[in-house]
Design a protein that fits this description.
Blueprint (H helix, E strand, L loop, with lengths): L14 E5 L6 E3 L4 H8 L5 E5 L5 E6 L7 H6 L5 E6 L12 E8 L21 E10 L4 E4 L5 H11 L4 E2 L1 E4 L2 E4 L16 E5 L1 H7 L1 H14 L9 E6 L5 E4 L11 E8 L5 E2 L2 E3 L15 H7 L9 E3 L6 E5 L14 E3 L2 E3 L2 E9 H7 L11
Parallel strand pairs: 1-5
Antiparallel strand pairs: 1-2, 3-4, 3-5, 6-7, 7-8, 8-19, 9-12, 10-11, 12-13, 13-22, 14-20, 15-19, 15-22, 16-21, 17-18, 17-20
Helix pairs in contact: 3-5
């Protein structure tokens, strides 16, 4: 979204304000930034101004409350800011192509309970800094290696292993369990993996490394754990797959999923690639991207020759968005699939941030709109 032209006073410092996730910038005058922000986003009840690392620096609401004048003067001149409206989440901007992200101390017990790393204290281990690389603009996909340690990967697998059941997939609002689907040939079934849900309360009391893994994902996404669903652990045996799908498609229960953190817990297997077939496909393509059957037929359920293919590496994380920035509208380019495992077992985990949970837990819950 673009805004009105800058009307900064001569010689006054200005700030660059971009839409959530990046885009055409509006130059803000510190003396009249509130008016400019609400003029640029007239339908928003509240606008937060975030820095490039997902930290809210300023905010203003239509009820007249806002950050103080002292706060605006503490923001460095020429800062690059991003406008997040109401209770929608921060989106990583697509530029620069690599973000260096602090995901906490290597000492797992030193990580803060809210998923944000505390200050470094004397005697603590080194901080874990990862490079989050933008690998696709449409859909929005970012990848970071070395997010989870081997211990965190193994602990997550161990927590999920005794709870595994047939994975559920949604079609037309109805759920189907892997192994009980039709057609009878597993190769034609849309999803054939096993799934375990890790209760966050249990993890907090029993799963030190698994909890540390979740906190690192929160730090990587720049979103709090309270806005995420329970972690889902996945096991794929030889021949298992998940044909092309949207993480927020098939049921209203999951329509609010906005961001997925897909974590690879091992790499000692063949196949099992994750493919985003729409990367590089023009938005005006004649393909009916709103029909799951058309997408699966067009791209042969899951393949690795077209689009973006991610080959699993232990501890690496794929972040991708399933909604548009500052909106509850689906990103119809976010189709992806897990291709057949050819040899060995693939272990992974999903962590989803959900608009419904954001609305429930948002500190702006009193003025939050109902998302649809």
């Amino acid at each position: 979204m673009t805004g009105p032209p800058s009307c900064a006073s001569p010689g006054a410092p200005t700030f660059s304000l971009e839409p959530n996730g990046g885009g055409v910038a509006l130059q803000l005058d510190p003396s009249k930034w509130r008016e400019q922000v609400h003029q640029a986003y007239p339908s928003a009840l509240r606008v937060g101004l975030f820095d490039i690392f997902g930290n809210e620096l300023l905010w203003s609401s239509t009820n007249g409350s806002s950050s103080t004048d002292a706060t605006i003067h503490s923001v460095p001149a020429s800062s690059r800011l991003f406008a997040i409206v109401d209770d929608f989440p921060f989106f990583w901007p697509l530029t620069p192509s690599v973000h260096k992200v602090d995901i906490g101390l290597d000492d797992d017990d030193a990580n803060g309970s809210d998923g944000n790393a505390p200050s470094v204290a004397s005697g603590h281990s080194h901080r874990r800094i990862v490079e989050l690389q933008v690998v696709s603009h449409s859909p929005r996909v970012l990848i970071a290696d070395g997010v989870l340690s081997p211990d965190e990967c193994e602990a997550t697998k161990a927590a999920g292993a005794p709870l595994l059941e047939g994975s559920v997939t949604f079609v037309g609002g109805k759920s189907t369990v892997a192994g009980a689907a039709s057609p009878a040939d597993p190769r034609e079934q849309p999803r054939t993996s096993s799934t375990a849900w890790l209760n966050s309360t249990w993890i907090e009391g029993n799963g030190r490394h698994a909890l540390s893994a979740q906190r690192r994902l929160a730090a990587l996404s720049r979103l709090p754990l309270t806005h995420a669903e329970n972690m889902q652990v996945l096991r794929y045996l030889p021949g298992d797959h998940y044909h092309y799908h949207l993480d927020n498609g098939g049921s209203r229960k999951i329509h609010g999923r906005v961001l997925t953190a897909l974590v690879y817990l091992n790499e000692d297997f063949d196949g099992g690639e994750t493919n985003f077939p729409m990367t590089g496909i023009p938005s005006d393509s004649e393909l009916n991207v709103r029909n799951v059957y058309h997408v699966r037929e067009h791209f042969a359920n899951c393949q690795v020759e077209r689009g973006l293919t991610v080959r699993p590496r232990r501890g690496s994380v794929v972040l991708f968005y399933s909604l548009q920035p500052n909106a509850a509208d689906k990103d119809w380019m976010a189709w992806h699939g897990g291709c057949d495992v050819r040899l060995g077992e693939k272990w992974a985990a999903n962590f989803w941030w959900h608009l419904g949970l954001m609305r429930t837990h948002s500190r702006q819950a009193t003025w939050s709109r109902t998302w649809r």
